[in-house]
Amino acid sequence: MKTNILLILLGLFTGQLIIGQDYPKYYQLVDEAYQLYENKEYLKSGQKYAEAFVALGNRGMIEDRYNAACSWALTNENDSAFVQLFKIAIRGQYSDGLTPNPHWLLNLNHVNLRLVM
To answer: How far apart are CA 108 and CA 82, in angstroms?
Structure first.
């Protein structure tokens, strides 16, 4: 009986993680975004990355968030670039020397934090 309850709870928990996340679509959109970036279509690239994050339930891989930040920065969409960098910083992944910059905190009043969290 305990095993059945545990399996049911595990199934519900696993189902919650999968719902709203379309990995094949995410990777397809990320590939398209990267190609747009390579073709110097930075605005379209940033928009495609945003679409990919939505397909994954507003989640995204750190490398993809960094690439999205680069796309947004190259179109002078600084708030959008900042949001992506902030999400990377929140996850605590500071590999390759990426650390939270104290100047980001000074700019928090320019960013809608509901978009970040």
So the answer is: 9
